[in-house]
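User: I'm putting together a teaching handout on how multi-component assemblies are represented. Below are the sequence lines for each component of a complex, exactly as they appear in our records. Could you produce the 3D structure of the whole assembly as structure tokens, so the students can see both representations side by side? Please keep the chain order the same as the input.
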Amino acid sequence: MKKTIILSIFFCSFSVKAQDHLLNLLSQDKPIYISYLFKGTKVVNGQSVELPSKGVLQFTIQHRFGTLNSGFYNLYGLDNSQVRLGFDYGIKDFLAVGLGRSSTTKTIDANSKLRIKRQIKDGFPVTIVANFATYVKQWQYTDNQLDNFLFTNQLSFAQQLLIASKINRDLTLQISPTLIHYNLVETLDEPNDKYSLGIGGRYKITKRISVNAEYFHQLNDKINNNVLSFGFDIETGGHVFQLHLSNSSAMIMPAFITKNTGNWLDGDIYFGFNISRVFTLYK
Amino acid sequence: MIVNKLAIFLFLMLSVQVNAQIFTGKNGEINFFSETPIEDISAVNNKLSAVFDASTNDLVFQLNITDFKFPIALMQEHFNENYLESDLYPKSKFIGRVVNIMDEQATVWGDLTIHGITNSIKVVGSFIKSKNSVSINSQFIIKLKDYNIKIPKIVMYKIAEEIEVKVNIELIELK
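Assistant: Of course. Below is the structure of the complete assembly, with chains in the same order as your input.
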């Protein structure tokens, strides 16, 4: 009788295990891609590894105000605002293009972002995105009449590799080796190519709010201050609000990386925000 | 004597299990539908997998949360990041058993796990078994609060408290 009981216990445990065994039949070795490394397509000023999804048009309004130390007369910088309007569109999930214009430097920028590799859970550790941007400084008719006017002199370019890793569900870190090329530089001995290394990241403090930081270090022939920025990302359904403080008021790479005169310690701190809204054009 | 008979019976049962007729499917479809007066939301997952063991009537389903595709990318992001937390709970599974089959209608009873929370459910659906395939078709309702899925009051779209789920999968005999 004992044997029967033992046997039936054994049999019962066998049939319970059978269901797990069935589940094992289903286990697939499909890679699980890590997504949503950042809330927005920008960390603060610089690009993040995020792209608008396929068929999604993202409209971004960026504002930068004057320095916080400019006194009450200028309402601590709020009187002095500049704006960049930008559109980004996802052609594919791994390819996006964008167009924007900044007010003070009167520069039109176009960029494309291509995702080369994605982070995989327990696998490839980083997401890699290439970012290419072209900047055209606008001119007026009178400039055009000058003898030495050349269209190509109005151009500058930026090439970036964005490498980011989602360390855990809250923390993402990114490094961004960047090359900025100016077709025209101000002095003869100034190099046309300027290398810099960006580091940045975000830390989620709630499901919908994260703290971001970003720093670009100029690697060769440093001519200006390095840019350091801190920000908050606040996601509210269809919008992402990014509020930040930075020692640069520019919103395009050639300006905020290599033409930044502001210094945090002197109080040259600019308040700014980005608001982005997504529209699904194509489902 | 009885012991012997039982032993033989168990032995037979075990041998049946060894020769179990097992059906598997990998590309089943599961979709869900949230209906509110303001907005209807739907998502589909075409990578539902399942196994049916004809000897024990065990039936299991499994899917990856990230395989749900939404018509709007932002909804998919919120679904994964804010509601289902697919980084913490990447899979949803059902482990159960067919308890009754009558006129190609089956009652299935078992544990459904979503968002790390397991509930016992009982679902009725069509269950058509032929010589080397099984076709399963069912729909049922799940409540978000049973699975601790919290939707904030203010979101740009409205999400229903009760979600209609439809399952459709074809299982082929595993040889």
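A couple of points students might notice: Chain B touches chain A through 41 residues (CB under 8 Å). Residues 22-173 of chain B form a domain with the Lipocalin fold (CATH 2.40.128.110).
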